[in-house]
């Protein structure tokens, strides 16, 4: 089997680097100047086993395609290139909910490429760790159990350990929703409201994640695994998390690099809209949606959460 990574951002590049330990890998990106050396991965260069290209037709000749594209860019990419992708094994790595359709990446992929096998690769990970060969464990979710097992063997490396699941919905939503909660956790710390407040945000945020995911058909136990609680813990407690840093900047009132992709900002708005349609109460998500659109201040966010009616846990 042959493997290509579509998307030469930090995460896509990191995946190509680690997968090169298993054999030749093709890495596709639009910017030829950044293909061999990614500025967001200083000190990391592509090994000879990684063949970098700007030729999408060449890259999509592989049997297995890892889609390492921003969640909000995936729909347009699929619309433009579905003919090259359909019938392949498509492994999505984006963590978000599409603002236009209010659906996750796997549903977008299935709609555009009905003959493809769809899988999700997600969990607690930073691109720099993967690229440097630090031990990382992720969830690989695929509804087709046999194909999922084959992909697990194909994409696991000496330092990247994949755990298999058939719950695509749960794995995908865990990865998307934790970014929203990470923004809230960052805002709390940026405003110096304390570790206790952050712990409360993480805990109640996890309850929101589980509430929405199970409503949409996910298994609750999936959310307690790597793709849910594991990823939530990492992104809410590390400065390496873009979503956490973005939230911290909002809380501290400091500037944030506008060129950095923050998936949780768009996802918060999409999930708040989805929750409204479903009649679900997701107060932290709603507060973050207001925060990222500057409709709500950090003080107002905390006031709204603290003044909610008292209830059982």
Would you spell out the secondary-structure blueprint of this structure?
Blueprint: E1 3-6, H1 10-19, E2 25-28, E3 50-53, H2 56-59, E4 64-67, H3 71-85, E5 89-92, H4 105-112, E6 117-122, H5 127-131, E7 136-142, H6 145-155, E8 160-165, H7 168-190, H8 195-215, H9 220-223, H10 226-235, H11 242-252, H12 263-278, H13 283-292, H14 298-306
Parallel strand pairs: 1-2, 1-4, 2-3, 4-5, 5-6, 7-8
Antiparallel strand pairs: 6-7
- How many E-type strands? 8
H and E string: EHEEHEHEHEHEHEHHHHHHHH
Name the CATH class of the largest domain. Alpha Beta
Specify the biggest β-sheet: 8 strands, mixed
Number of domains: 2
The DSSP helix count reads 14
Structural class: alpha/beta
Oligomer: single chain
**Amount of beta strand:** 5-15%
Shape annotation? globular
Q: Which superfamily, in CATH terms, is the homologous superfamily of the largest domain?
A: NAD(P)-binding Rossmann-like Domain
**Fraction of residues in helices?**
40-55%
Return the CATH architecture of the largest domain.
3-Layer(aba) Sandwich
CATH topology of the largest domain: Rossmann fold
* Strand arrangement across the biggest beta sheet: 3-2-1-4-5-6-7-8
Distance from N terminus to C terminus (CA atoms, Å) equals: 49 Å
**Mean pLDDT across all residues, rounded?**
95
Family: Belongs to the NAD-dependent glycerol-3-phosphate dehydrogenase family.
Organism: Paracoccus zhejiangensis
Binding site for substrate: 95, 242-243
EC number: 1.1.1.94
């Amino acid at each position: 089997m042959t493997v290509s990574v579509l998307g030469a951002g930090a995460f896509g590049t990191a995946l190509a680097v680690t997968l090169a330990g298993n054999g030749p890998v093709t890495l596709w990106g639009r910017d030829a100047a950044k293909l061999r050396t990614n500025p967001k991965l200083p000190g990391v260069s592509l090994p000879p086993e990684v063949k970098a290209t700007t030729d999408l037709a060449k890259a999509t000749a592989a049997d297995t395609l890892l889609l390492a594209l921003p969640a909000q860019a995936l729909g347009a990419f699929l619309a433009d290139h579905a003919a090259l992708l359909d019938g392949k094994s498509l492994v999505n790595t984006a963590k978000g909910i599409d603002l236009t359709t209010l659906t996750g990446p796997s549903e977008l992929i299935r709609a555009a490429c009905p003959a493809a096998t769809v899988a999700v690769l997600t969990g607690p990970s930073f691109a720099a760790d993967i690229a440097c060969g630090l031990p990382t464990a992720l969830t690989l979710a695929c509804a087709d159990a046999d194909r999922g097992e084959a992909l697990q063997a194909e994409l696991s490396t000496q330092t990247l350990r994949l755990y298999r699941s058939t719950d695509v919905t749960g794995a995908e939503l865990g990865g998307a929703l934790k970014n929203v909660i990470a923004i809230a956790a960052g805002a709390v710390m940026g405003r110096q409201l304390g570790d206790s407040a952050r712990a409360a945000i993480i805990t109640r945020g996890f309850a929101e994640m589980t509430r929405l995911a199970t409503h949409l058909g996910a298994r609750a136990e999936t959310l307690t695994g790597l793709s849910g609680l594991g990823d939530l813990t990492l992104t809410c407690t590390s400065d390496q998390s873009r979503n956490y840093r973005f939230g911290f900047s909002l809380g501290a009132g400091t500037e944030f690099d506008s060129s950095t992709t923050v998936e949780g900002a768009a996802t918060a708005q999409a999930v708040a809209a989805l929750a409204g349609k479903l009649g679900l109460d997701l107060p932290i998500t709603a507060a973050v949606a207001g925060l990222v659109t500057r409709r709500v201040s950090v003080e107002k966010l905390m006031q709204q959460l603290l003044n909610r009616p008292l209830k059982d846990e």
